[in-house]
Amino acid sequence: MTKHLQRDLDGVYNELLSMSTVVEEMIDQAALALIERQHEMAAIVIASDEAVDRREVKVEEDCLKILALHQPVAIDLRRIVSVIKINNDLERIADLAVNVAQRSLALDEYLQFTVPQKVSRMVSLATQMVRGSLDAFVNLDTAAAKRIMAMDVTIDELNVEVIEELQTLMQEQPGLVVPALHCFSASRHIERIADHATNIAEDVVYLVAGDIVRHQAVESAKH
Question: Buried b vs exposed e over 162-188: b needs ≥16 C-beta within 10 Å?
Fold first, then answer.
């Protein structure tokens, strides 16, 4: 690797990690808005999205410049491909955090509605997954990445349990159908955040080992 390629790679890595810090804060703030009804946090999350969008575009443009100027191969090419993919996942996570914040605002007029406790557990796990997947990326740690991937099953199970709880609530208290539907959407958005964290973890395995592990669980289930 030339020193110029290393310099440019370091630049996009630093930009990506800076963006990830903002995205992690957005998840935390959206959770406070939804679960603890700190609705001032929702406005902060929504306002942060534009900055994340700008960073996402810059990282992608910088990666394309590296591909054009240096024509990297092997591990260096995998690094650039991984950065592009992780960059996209982080932008989507930010969008989902905004969606959660918007759902929290929609719950403003339903003070009698209580967000199920399992949603808090989902947020905690999803946040761990995002942070853990990015740590695995920084440390090139495939074992940590695989642990993150395994956590996704728990999030999926919790999401199903939350949906079942909300369905029961809507049947028993029709007056709470509207806030329950907002909470239903928020739970789904949190589950999707975990999916994107899983994507990042899978990209770490690809970066280090060159193995594409996406969809392997699905394929295994078919046989």
Answer: bbebbeebbeeeeebeebbebbbebbb
Q: What is the pLDDT of residues 175-191, one digit of tens each?
A: 999 999 999 999 999 99
CA distance 33 to 117: 15
- Claim: this prediction has a pTM higher than 0.90: yes
Confidence of residue 210 (pLDDT cuts 50, 70, 90): confident
**Overall domain count for the chain:** 1
Which residues in 70-223 belong to E strands, given as ranges?
none
CA distances from 65 to 3, 52, 85, 88 (A): 16, 20, 16, 17
Q: Which helix (H) or strand (E) holds 58?
A: helix 40-70
Torsion of CA 144, 148, 151, 155, to 10 degrees: 160
**CATH code for position 159:** 1.20.58.220
Look at residue 148 and give its three-state secondary structure.
Answer: helix
